[in-house]
Amino acid sequence: MAKQLPLGIRLNNPGLLVRSSDPWQGLAPVQRHRRFFTYIAPELGIRALARALITYQDKRRARDGSAIDTIREIIERWAPPIGFDETTGKEYAQDTEAYIEDVASDLGVSPEAVIDLHHYDTMRAIVVSIIEHENANYRYPAAVVDEGLRLAGVVPPAKVDRVATVALAAGGVGGVAGAVDLVGLAGSLNQAKDALAPAAETSTVVRGLVVALTLGVVAIGAYLVWRRYAQARAIAS
User: Fold this and answer.
1) pTM of the model
2) Which residues pair with 92 in a beta bridge?
3) What are the residue boundaries of the structural domains of the chain, listed by start?
4) What pLDDT does residue 173 have?
């Protein structure tokens, strides 16, 4: 007999959000469980989990009136020692302290460490930890977690081209257009160098051309650094 999946996974509700009057996105037309929400896909359940945590940090307060920004405060809100089941009107007990220690250990921080749930890596780590805690260490594929976070508005920071960063910093607001032109030129030189690299192994002429292209890229970078330095000196004087 096949082992049954954990309840939160079967309901596409890996955070085991308790049923309430909140109109969550992605709720299944037929709610299959008396106490916990059912979602139409796991990504929507992960979205709800992440949005609930963001709401805690942005709009709610800890017991002492401070912002909810530590593992302890987040989990005390998420899984309080005494919970209340709206469907039955009864209270129930939870081992909140063990939950706090479990999540803090997964994140590699103290339960009292301040964390930012708008930071992608932090949010991803705490969401994965909560899912595992609630569902007997069950792990979704990374793509499912990433899509759930994306739906919640939590995405990894965009990768910034290193040459572009230097160029824009060097040019300042007034020199953006020129910097972009230089960045484009440097990119073209790099592409040409990479395309010629295989032939450079057998041709002295091509090898010399590759060296020249490399020097061109280096020269552009050096010029941008020099321009940034010159502008900084001009401002200082």
Assistant:
1) 0.66
2) 83
3) 7-151, 162-236
4) 47
